Amino acid sequence: MQAAQDATERSVSLANHDAQDLRRACQAGARFANASKADLAALNEAFAPVYASLEQDPQTKAFIQQIERLKRSTPAGRPLAVPAGCTGNAPAKPVKQAGSVPSSLNGTYRYELTKEDALRVGDPEADQFPDVETVTMRNGEVEGGCFEVARYSVTGNRITSTFPNSATP
After folding, report:
1. Residue 98's pLDDT band (boundaries 50, 70, 90)?
2. Where in the chain are the domains?
3. Strand order in 141-144's β-sheet?
4. Using CA atoms, how far apart are residues 44 and 50, in angstroms rounded to an integer?
């Protein structure tokens, strides 16, 4: 019971970052729109073959049915408010980052993510830790670790990363 209560409290705190994440993504150049009923119907139609394939496995089919029952029994929350100026077409090129790219940060870095760290932030895969990550930072680009490829800049004592292949920073 305690574990379920702890998980519930942590999951709510994770979801409470949506508005902040939306603002950051908008500042990085992402744009948002609400899907119409026709858009949702088209998505459902497009995914129908995927669901049909997944439901060939009886256990997966049972999981999908459980998820559908849960969706029907859970009231929809308030939709996120899309900030003004964050709709429409995304900019043709990425929003330029403020800050500099000091060459003194160039290098290879290794850090350990402990099980305790993972538990503290509510990582559902905490049992897979400890894990040593390696990242390489060079001239404003970072690779490795949880990054496929990202760009970074420095303003004061803050490093800001953007992910060119993603809508979110």
Report:
1. low
2. 2-73, 103-162
3. 107-113, 131-138, 141-144, 147-155, 158-162
4. 10
